[in-house]
Amino acid sequence: MSSIDRSLISGMPLFADLGDADLDQILAEARASRVEKERAIFEQEAEAESFFLLLDGHVRVVRTTPEGNQVIARYIGPGELFGIAAALGRTTYPASAVAAVDCVVIAWPSAHWPALASRYPAFAANTYKLVGARLQETQEHVVELSTEQVEQRIARTLMRLIQQTGRKTDEGVLIDFPITRQQIAEMTGTTLHTVSRTLSAWETRGLVRNSRQKVLVVEPHQLFAIAEHGSGH
Amino acid sequence: MSSIDRSLISGMPLFADLGDADLDQILAEARASRVEKERAIFEQEAEAESFFLLLDGHVRVVRTTPEGNQVIARYIGPGELFGIAAALGRTTYPASAVAAVDCVVIAWPSAHWPALASRYPAFAANTYKLVGARLQETQEHVVELSTEQVEQRIARTLMRLIQQTGRKTDEGVLIDFPITRQQIAEMTGTTLHTVSRTLSAWETRGLVRNSRQKVLVVEPHQLFAIAEHGSGH
DNA sequence: GGTGAAATTTGCGCTTGCTCAAACAATCTG
DNA sequence: CAGATTGTTTGAGCAAGCGCAAATTTCACC
Lengths: 233, 233
Fold this sequence. Notes:
homodimer, alpha+beta, 7 helices, DNA-binding
């Protein structure tokens, strides 16, 4: 069985405080794989057989309601764990994970989590720190949905996206993967129509440049102002 | 130092799989205290010196925005841990906790978490399971705020409250602690006016009976139908 | 290079639910 | 018990943003 090279993960904060031998051991239980764009890595409600680490690409975490509405919970970037139902005592995935671009992931069997966690407490602690951060982000999302207007929420979503995955160009900051207006709407709790209108208005004001599945932020500072105070201030 | 009696916690799911000696050891590090109604147990942003177990009463977990908006993240019931920032690698509390009624809590120093968790893995696992459940609930809340109308959200909130803390009377099911329209609004992302109007309309239809800081649910089944499908179905 | 699918833009009308305002009811305090 | 405080109800007007519809643009694939 071809094993995964330690160098792929040795720099990650998740594995800080772990020696080379530890990393090799951890990787010995994992399998790497490629996932092509728009393919699901796991499906909501399915048995949580594995948990994953994203090596390269971007992954969309989506919840679908019984009525067919979709809500994007978050995007996962390189170096992040996802699908860690096992660490939280769950047996099924609460959401689906879809590759936003071609991705490389490594997977561990969920059943190995308890042993891994007890053998490498630093790894477990880092994982739970990640969970804590996600819980807090999710709660912040609730606060935003409860208290802010749509324009402000779209601005916040865009700021978050460019902070996490912004690629600087000489024109401005670009989101590093293709994203549709519909998907931005599913992150902010609105409709693609309102997202389109808002982005168009911002383009007129010179804050962003829009094209198909792309948003280029030209004036991050002004967008930040909208995210923090709303546009009427 | 007066120690806490083991019988207070021995029946809790959180401490399942632990022997009497273990329980005594765990309790040896804890301090019990009374908190009177409306007093804060800890404040948002403060140093997370302790984590807590609620023995009796109900606790409100509240996030306040820089603009002064309040959002109620959840209510904690007897037997639940809260303020467990330490288990998630945080050094400050992300929200405030306020006693909704007179409460009895026990507190452990946050610094003891790592030792406790490694000495009693079953306790740690139960705690992380709780965290997982909360993360999922919070994500569900995001989905509701993103996709449902106000009436449906209020119905859901009420259903959740009576499920968690419902006290059956011969008239119907009553929420076990005083709760204002304002607080219901802060749980659902709306205003107290809309909550008041909605509850009044439901009272007219015979679904609930309203009085100051009280909601008595007379027809849980019909309320459930609104929570699931909206009222127009 | 033509065709079809997917994504985006934009207009219009309307509904939900918010803001503002005022009156009213219940509870607490001294 | 008087007065103050806190919580609740209800009305009226208004605006944010949704639903619907249609046109347009962009891209992928033959």
